[in-house]
Hints:
single chain, 307 residues, FAD/NAD(P)-binding domain, seven-stranded mixed beta sheet, 7 helices, 16 strands, binds flavin-adenine dinucleotide
Amino acid sequence: MKSNYDALVIGCGPAGMGAALALKKAGVDFAIIEKDAPGGKVNIAPRVDNYPRQAPIPGPDLAVLLFQRIIDNNIEMIQDEVLSLTKEGELFHLKTKFSGELTAKVVLIATGTKERKLGLEHEDEMLGHGLSYCAVCDGHFFKDKDVLVVGGGNVALKETVYLSKLCKKVYLVHRRNEFRGDLKYVNEVKELPNVEIITPYIPLEIICDDKVKAIRLQNREDNSERTIEVQGFFPLVGQDPNSNFVNIENVKNEWGTIPYTSIKTMETGCPNLFVAGDVTPRDLRQIYLAEHDGMVAANSMIEALKK
Ligand SMILES: Cc1cc2nc3c(=O)[nH]c(=O)nc-3n(C[C@H](O)[C@H](O)[C@H](O)COP(=O)(O)OP(=O)(O)OC[C@H]3O[C@@H](n4cnc5c(N)ncnc54)[C@H](O)[C@@H]3O)c2cc1C
């Protein structure tokens, strides 16, 4: 198997695929590396209404359409996980789980984010059995039922609004009395008759058998406890960038997201290392933005290779 490339793209979500199509058109010697299903998070979007020139479409169907372009263009795909990325001299070294070590002159990081966990017992086991990290994807399973959301940012607030339209009752639990999210969303949530805000509480235990039955909470001021019976549990406490594998200085910020030095190049703090999509620090994470980043980054990679 080939192991030395001019360019490597890590991640086959919209950002990686956007870049791959542009690199292929320019005739670059490259491959795209993906550890899970091609399409990235598009696979878990229930319905995408805002993809340009596309009627509303279920996320998994759009993921297939997007990946079909990779197949049609005969783009080399390596089904593997990148475990570490380093730079020695002018060359990037990528250690992978199954394919050994790969090298490239230019690299694009397009690895997106993953949902942050609470670290509670039974959290992994209850995923898909009453616990979900995505209200928009799974809210319909809890129609006319009671659910509990944990979080204090915009995602938790917006998803609470969404769930309030489907569910009988929504409990919104946050560890502080003030929310981190925008005031307009806080006010909207406060107006909803079927939402009860519970602060300053933290979840202590998921009470369950083969599915979620209740959540035990603790008050952070007086340590008193409350147990709330619910059928659905949505920990919505943020996302973490998929960047642990990056072992190069001056590339990640304190949160592990990867900033670019210029939006015109998408180059990181390390020369010839580029970034695109959700793994960058940004408020709005969308398919078309990720694709656009990928295409801009690809242009810069092509220029870098010419030099
Ligand atoms: C529930 C939900 C609904 C959404 N709905 C919409 C919508 O309607 N419209 C819209 O525009 N956007 C929507 N989004 C956002 C959109 O899906 C993302 O902004 C977009 O997918 C980001 O693309 P990306 O390529 O940056 O990252 P991702 O899509 O996350 O892709 C990153 C890829 O990198 C891979 N990867 C990660 N680490 C490694 C590694 N070490 N080695 C190899 N591969 C790796 C991952 O497996 C993944 O496939 C939604 C998101 C969610 C979660």
